[in-house]
Design brief:
Layout: H1 3-19, H2 26-38, E1 46-48, E2 57-60, E3 63-67, E4 74-76, H3 79-85, H4 105-116, H5 122-148, H6 155-160, H7 163-187
Helix pairs in contact: 1-2, 1-5, 2-5, 2-7, 3-5, 5-7
Length: 188
């Protein structure tokens, strides 16, 4: 499987999930269109954790102690884990520190590059961050639907539905910032 095929399959899965929702979500539609238009194509393939975020690793003053929750591991683009770590939901209110509420993107990417001996391609990391926010919005809506359908009565599932609007706002801001950046680079 090439990195490009993995991205296309992921986009297709997100579209299926979006179509399964019985209410309009224009920001999620916009994000899906943006992802199709900005698809970075095939990239390097590595072992990807699939859910690398705060809560799935243990660390201390001397560094990383362990990584937990490996059920989503797969072969894919290493930028996928970088983007997922920067999804808004994992900041827990510390939006000035977009890498899991722990650091800036730049500091996180620099630390990753040092530890992995891999260069971070900013456009690829950004693409995966947008995809991750869309993915989490759809997952949150799916969890809320489980509650609302009566399939599983749960305050936790019901409350997850509200997270989708936070991801929609984040997606709109990310796409706006990308458009501004491109506009500015055209004027330089």
């Amino acid at each position: 499987m090439s990195g490009g095929a993995g991205i296309a399959r992921r986009q297709g899965g997100l579209e299926v999930d979006l179509r399964a929702i019985d209410e309009p979500h224009p920001a999620l539609e916009l994000a899906l269109r943006w992802l199709r238009a900005q698809d970075p194509g095939p990239g390097e393939l590595v072992l990807v954790h699939g859910d690398f975020r705060v809560g799935n690793f243990m660390s201390g003053p001397d560094g990383l102690h362990g990584v937990l929750d490996w059920e989503l591991v797969h072969v894919g683009d290493p930028h996928e884990d970088l983007g997922w770590m920067c999804v808004r939901a994992w900041r827990f209110g510390k939006d000035s520190l977009p890498a899991g509420g722990l650091s800036t993107r730049e500091a996180f990417y620099e630390a990753y590059a040092r530890a992995s001996s891999r260069q971070v391609v900013l456009e690829r990391a950004f693409y995966w961050e947008v995809l991750g926010n869309l993915r989490w919005a759809l997952m949150a809506l799916g969890q809320a639907r489980r509650h609302l359908s009566g399939l599983e009565s749960s305050i936790e599932l019901a409350s997850l539905g509200r997270v989708a609007c936070e991801m929609e706002l984040e997606l709109l801001q990310l796409i706006r910032d990308d458009e501004k950046k491109k506009e500015n680079s055209c004027h330089e």
